[in-house]
Fold this protein.
Amino acid sequence: MLELSTPVQYVKGVGPRIGEVLAGKGIHTVGDLLHYLPFRYEDRLNPRGISELRPGEMATVVGEIRNSGLFRTRSIPIFQLTVGQGRARLRCLWFNATYLRDKFIPGQMIALYGKVEEDQRSRELQIVQPQFEILGDSGGSGESGAEKKAAESLEIGRIVPIYEAIGKLTPRWFRRAIRTALDNLTPELADPIPAAVRAHLGLISPRAALWNAHWPEPGESFEDLQSSRTPAHIRMIFDELFFVELGLELKRRQQKAQTGIAFRLDDRARAAIKKILPFHPTPAQKRVLKEIAADMEKPYPMRRLLQGDVGSGKTIVAFEAAIIAIENGCQVALMAPTEILAQQHYFSARRLLENAGYRIVLLTGSLESDRKREVRRHISQGNAQLVIGTHALLEEKVEFDKLGLVIVDEQHRFGVLQRLKLMRKSGDGEDSRRASLGRTGEGARPDTNLHPQTDSEPAEPDVLVMTATPIPRTLALTLYGDLDLSVLDELPPGRTPIATHCVADDQSPRVWEFVRKQVAAGHQAYVVYPVIAESEESELKAAIKMYRELSGKIFADLKVGLLHGRLDPKLKEQVMRMFQRGELQILVATTVIEVGVDVPNATVMVIEHAERFGLAQLHQLRGRIGRGGAKSYCILMTGGKVGEEGQRRLDAMVKTNDGFKIAELDLELRGPGEFFGTRQAGLPSFRVANLIRDAKLLEAAKREAAAVIAGPNAEISAEEISRALVHMRARWQHTYGLVEVG
Ligand code: ADP
Ligand code: MG
């Protein structure tokens, strides 16, 4: 008998070699294989009669191969296949498909799937480029007649699952392997979801779900199957979401049970804040600060996400929060994803806070080691009140004297794991480890972790995470399910919306002329090149070459600077500062300026090869302009042919400045796995759930998980909760890898 945890190679017909191929796609166990769901289904129980086909419909047709052949037209070779059902015939066409030449033998049965069309001239029905499967040809050799027959029955006369092929493993191979796995699956599949939760959602058993998702009952709604809305699909999707949410809920609860610092927001602190403000905060900024301050006053640690579009003014809110902590005698760490951004924060912090007497230090990787050591000493002795840096702050050697608040800027650049690591920074090693999920050997007594000991536990610092990418709600629920949310939904006053245009790069003379005019009017401009991975030598060369062209020829009379990730940090800083002070009029840059850079006088952003950038990245880049009162322009230049998806990105940019709309579309185009590069960062990568499609189920899962964690009660017993937690820990550990929810 197979268990869900049995290595997949023990399924008959798999073995070590294929096992390795599957492992490459994340399929390690029988359970993984059974969660490899069909991406569509074919109704070969009621395949369409050729005579009833209608133009425009997607149809499955099962028929007999009559004849096939290649014929050449003026332009391209076309392969034609004729399939018959009695007297009715259907033509199929493939363009440029010489490889099909010897594929079809008359008399074989074939299943076809595709869009039915009417030939313009002959008015006959045809399917162009259908997907197909030759039936009854088992592909393997040496099989007995009985095996062959059994295999055939998986292909016709039923609703047939269609799997995405993996290398040489065809949809048919998956049908057989998965069928074999199901046939040999242990009958005792425990249901780790509490009965009350099952009842609320009308969930079917795990076993029935696995069977029916792959081999639907004949009466199953075809529409529900295709849209993953059958009871089997819903059970599997909910299952996946529920245990993620359970982990996050538990973590949230553990955080609230920890000892934090109850900061005091008294008149003195209020006055201190007022003193540093260079402008009147917007109502949104006021509201958000209130939310943050209320958290900080609580005796347990703050875990808050501040979400605000580029330019919405998060920095000043962060400084305000920092002052509350400092006025309470604590240190503050502000972490930025790049050196440039860390430096920029450092300069604005000094500009705003140093006059008020606060002591600020900068700690980045590029500091000389002597200087680093000195800065570290300032930090450990408590001299430094506000510590600004990059992930260098994560290094073990940095010890704080009394860290009270951690601010993480532009969170989307950081992985979830890094965030967790930073949260653990302040002396809570042992306790958070005891309270963490997914540790081996803890499964037996999961409920003891609900309430970590509170005596002798050092206080946890508050954590404020800031992100410029507006996160669609569904994603926020999972990615940041453990955080409370504040939203800056208002831009500072006096901004005019950025005008965005998209032009082909043969228009560049006009673009440069426009840049020249803006500079003549006293403004500054960015010209950005796609060096997306700074390791790409050739891309970097292209950027440097264009810089020479712009600085030496096109704008020979203007002051043009160059900024890229490989420059010496000192030089980087110098260039950035010159641009900030207006000593450079044009800054040619790679994506290093993507995040957070703030030069309000810059009104033009030219992005070359814009089609190569991701949507979120384009929006971030554009966020560098439109920061002052003057009208700003973003010009997306395209080089060469733009693909369909690239065009959708560009269109979205031209159409809207709304970060939320852009984020939603980005999520749709890229899928949640890549949205934040979250795979490496430890976001659970879902096997069957889809955060866009399954938003409702996700909310239900969150609700139910919260109720379970709050239990036991009349509905949910302690045993059920404990069983669910054991299962959840195993899941986090095995499925979601190294993620430690502590
Ligand atoms: P982001 O949210 O992208 O980090 P910043 O904090 O860099 O945005 O703010 C963008 C710009 O808006 C900065 O130049 C900042 O000084 C300015 N700003 C922020 N809040 C206000 C306000 N309430 N009134 C006027 N200008 C503001
Ligand atoms: Mg910022």
In short: Residues 452 and 643 are 54 Å apart (CA to CA).
